[in-house]
TrEMBL record:
Residues 119-294 form the D-isomer specific 2-hydroxyacid dehydrogenase NAD-binding domain. InterPro entries: D-2-hydroxyacid_DH, D-isomer_2_OHA_DH_cat_dom, D-isomer_DH_NAD-bd, NAD(P)-bd_dom_sf. PANTHER family: D-ISOMER SPECIFIC 2-HYDROXYACID DEHYDROGENASE FAMILY PROTEIN (AFU_ORTHOLOGUE AFUA_6G10090). The keyword Oxidoreductase applies. It comes from Bordetella trematum. Gene3D superfamilies: NAD(P)-binding Rossmann-like Domain (3.40.50.720). Belongs to the D-isomer specific 2-hydroxyacid dehydrogenase family. This is Phosphoglycerate dehydrogenase. The gene is serA4. Its EC number is 1.1.1.95. Keywords: NAD, Oxidoreductase. Residues 66-326 form the D-isomer specific 2-hydroxyacid dehydrogenase catalytic domain. The lineage of its organism: Bacteria, Pseudomonadati, Pseudomonadota, Betaproteobacteria, Burkholderiales. GO terms for molecular function: NAD binding; phosphoglycerate dehydrogenase activity.
Length: 342
């Protein structure tokens, strides 16, 4: 019987992924060009039983997103692994319809992203960009002209308290922060166990001095931070997102900052990544901006790659993985796996 094939695109990934797959005698690895319309990639995916795909929507050409069209062209595909906690490049419903099991790597880079949340917050309130620019520019300014603020005693509101959000919550007491959280997927008791006071969305907006997003991008959250949501935030509040571009309306955020209603934002994620250099948010001194690098650490990337490889290997052995996004597909998946081995 021929080796079972795992495919990935030739985007950067920690070498542990390839080492783990290649150490399995029954598996073979195909590394395919990440080029839109490339016939080699189409042919390679059509022959593959498993596919590791980057979760970064602006890295992966739409041709190679896992949607109904690609699934129809790849009838041998059994399982898909998203290379991150998010899965913007995978249509989970279409996979379920096709009998394809889908996993993500939730929690693998959670420490990295939680740390980035505080990096954005501290850079914003301590005015690190302005201070560094003054030093590098040889400007003679008084230290008071660069005066920042403390966060001790402030209220931090978390929209989502999953793997990343709960780490943010657990760090917060060290800074003297009170933590609120809303998460429709968790009970009040679970939110309390994760280190936050449970509140509804409107209460969080009204009470929080700092609002930080840690929810997935989906039909319910897309555009949820619009003009009305920003208007309901506490005057002078700060807004942070290390979640996904598209959850907050960038034009609405810019307007809330320009009006003075909000006093700053820290953004690691964008609707288009990277955003255009002339983006209005990038021109503001009260915005700290990063290149969607919250989870891009050596440790985080290694854990994501290792988790993806191990989950694909487990599924191809018939073992239920830890991060299965469509559990209802599992019985059908096992039937398809047995048929592929016959």
């Amino acid at each position: 019987m021929s080796a079972t094939q795992i495919a990935r695109l030739d985007l950067w990934i920690d070498p542990v992924f390839d080492r783990l797959v290649q150490a399995e005698p029954a598996l073979s690895l195909k590394v395919l060009p990440a080029l839109a319309g490339d016939a080699r990639t189409a042919a390679g995916l059509a022959e593959a039983q498993a596919y590791h795909v980057s979760a970064a929507k602006d890295e992966v050409p739409r041709d190679w997103w896992v949607d109904a069209e690609l699934l129809a062209a790849c009838p041998q595909l059994l399982c898909v692994s998203s290379g991150g906690a998010g899965y913007d490049t995978v249509d989970v419903a279409a996979c379920t319809e096709a009998g394809v099991a889908v996993v993500n790597q939730a929690g693998a880079n959670a420490a990295s992203v939680a740390e980035m949340t505080y990096a954005l917050l501290l850079s914003l309130v301590k005015r690190l960009d302005a201070s560094g620019a003054a030093l590098r520019g040889g400007q003679s300014v008084s230290r008071e002209a660069l005066m920042g603020r403390e966060i001790e005693g402030r209220v931090l509101g978390l929209v989502g308290i999953g793997e990343i959000g709960q780490r943010v919550a657990r760090i917060a007491p060290a800074f003297g922060l009170q933590v609120l959280a809303c998460d429709p997927l968790l009970s009040d008791a679970e939110i309390r166990e994760r280190g936050a006071e449970p509140v509804d969305f409107d209460s969080l907006l009204a009470r929080a001095d700092i609002v930080s997003l840690h929810c997935p991008l989906n039909a319910e959250t897309r555009g949820s931070f619009d003009t009305q949501a920003f208007a309901r935030m506490k005057p002078g509040a700060l807004f942070l997102s290390t979640a996904r571009g598209g959850i907050h309306d960038e034009a609405a955020l810019l307007a809330a900052l320009e009006s003075g209603h909000l006093h700053g934002a820290g953004l690691d994620v964008w609707t288009v990544e990277p955003p255009p250099a002339d983006h209005g948010l990038l021109a503001r001194a009260d915005v700290v901006a990063t290149y969607h690098t919250g989870g891009v650490t050596h440790e985080g990337r290694r854990k994501v790659a290792e988790g993806s490889a191990r989950q694909l290997i487990a599924m191809l052995r018939g073992e239920r993985p830890a991060r299965l996004l469509n559990p209802q597909v599992w019985p059908r998946y096992l039937e398809r796996l047995r048929a592929a081995r016959a």
